[in-house]
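Example record used in the benchmark description.
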Amino acid sequence: MLHIKLALHWQILLALLLAILAGLVFDQNTQIGGVSLLSILLFIGTLFLNALKMLIVPLVMASIITGMMSLQADTLGRLGGKTLLYYMSSSLIAILIGLLLVNLLQPGIMHGQPVRDMIGLSADTSTVLHKVGGKGASDIADVLLRMVPANVVTAAAKGQMLGLIFFSLLYGYFLSRLEGKSATAQRNFWQGLLDIMLAMTNLIMKFAPLGVFALVAKVVLVSGVDAFKPLSVFFFTVILALSIHLFVILPLALRFIARVSVVKHFKAMMPALLTAFSTSSSSATLPITMDSVEKRAGVSNQITGFTLPLGATINMDGTALYECVAAMFIAQAYGLSLDITTQFTIVLVALLTSVGVAGIPSASLVAITIILSAIGLPLEAVGLILVVDRVLDMCRTAVNVFSDSCAAVIIARLEGEQTRLVV
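Model output (structure tokens):
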């Protein structure tokens, strides 16, 4: 009997296609055995997401600490400097791509008129305002405050990754200077914890195709493919900008800085990309990202343990790009002409807020309200983009995750490592 075993990324891709098909064939009223299909998909999808999120705190801590505990002071400074330079540069490039396209295509203008009256506000506007209202440019300072939490356990419980990362970096740094029996015991503990967490990740990933199917089918079932028609120009402006960054800018960096095969890297990252697309969460995808970069791309744990958890928190290329395009689109929709100073403000605030955006679905809506407040636009305008936000969230999260992986490979190359992706 012939047994054909598909690679994980092909299983996930097949699940993705089947989910779209199921979402188109069935509707929200479909029942199976007297139980709503929508509730079944919601249960399975939530279960998969919870399983991934369950790994995040111990995996991030173990990865950072084990990566740090063997670093020398000069190596740490060099590695940190390169990582931050890459993350700031890639996010800025992404924002400028979005700014250029939104000025060229002007999605907020149709037939020479602002589209505000054509598309109206979402019925969920009041709900969104309740969640994100009261934000302002001063909230950027909260990003710095979250780096030093009053209680690291509370920060971890609330998913405030900046504080957890900062604590883990400090812990790993001083562990690297510890000597004697205490040092040996600590090193063995954290290395053992990391091995266990990676093994648990492998187990949960066996169920990834089922989780992806449930998550994507639910979105298509609820939204349908016609949900974004009134906002099609805005939608495709964002998609085009994300595509340029994903398929042009980042591959150029891989080819000419890391000097690796772009095709090999895409293949290595396929499980992480598809998981990011279906979950819309770079944080939930982090275990798969780390597994793909280490095992499939061949980057050392020292590099991945430092760059990827940090990237999942502060490197949001796709999110920063989306924030910029969304703010410009809303300004255009209201018939406002923004001068170069205001556009520069949008670029700067998008860059800063993308650092503090949580790696969870639709978290960038909060950041967009900060940008709108900074340039004096009404917060209710967030309702204009709700219709297509979920689908675009899936796309920009994939870009975020891919950029993180590029950082790990590029920095590994600059540190003299030989990965499996070398041409």
